[in-house]
Every structure is written in C-alpha cells, then in structure tokens.
Amino acid sequence: MPEPSRLEMLTQFLEQNPSDAFARYGLAMEYSNAGQTEQALAEFKKLLELHPDYTNGYFMAAQALERSGRTPEAKKMLESGVEAARRTGNKHALSEMTGMLEELSS
Fold it and tell me: How many structural domains comprise the chain?
C-alpha cells in the first residue's frame, strides 16, 4: 500500500480536527504549490474565517490571487492582512504585506 501524500494526510487530519489552523494552512499551501488555486483559496478562506489573526494566511492567499491575475482581490486580501498584523503586533507580516501592497499599487 503506497504512503499517503501530504495532501491526503492533511485532509484526513482536518476531517478529525477541522479547526486546526496549522493543518488548514498546510493544506492550503499544498493546493497552492500544486497550482490548484481555487482549492487553495477555499482553504485559506476557511482558515481566516476560523482564525482571523492568522496573518500568514492573508499573505499567502494574496500571493495565490496575484499569481492567477486577480490583483484587485489580492489587494483586498492584503488590506485585511495588514489589519490583522496590526491587531496582533506582527511587525514582520505587516512589513511583508505592506511591501506587496505597495508593489501591486504602483
């Protein structure tokens, strides 16, 4: 029997632990890295609904949106992420998202 893929393992884990932020983020990243943007965005959306202060989720979702040519949506995602980073005092995430937002706005 073959080893389950990371995607399968994360999906199975989330079936039993649907509110686990790290696993949800990991699943979204697996989809994003595989070029499955819609699935990735759906997982990022679930993640951010359950954990609105998970700042990396906003940044990575914005990158996925930008890669698929959805710049206005990427900007909105970054704006929400900037708010979350300010709320949580995450200066690194704030800097990254502000920088990307400036690049997209120029």
Answer: 1
CB burial of 55-66 (b: ≥16 within 10 Å; e: otherwise) equals bbbbbbbbbbbb
pTM score = 0.92
Residues 57-72 have pLDDT tens digits of 999 999 999 999 999 9
Domain with residue 22: its CATH number is 1.25.40.10
* Residue 17 identity: N
Instruction: Quote the DSSP letter at residue 47.
Output: H
1 part of a folded domain: no
Distances (CA, A) of 53 to 13, 46, 57: 22, 13, 9
d(CA 1, CA 82): 45
Alpha carbons within 13 A on the beta-carbon side of 38: 0
The residue range of the domain holding 37 is 6-105
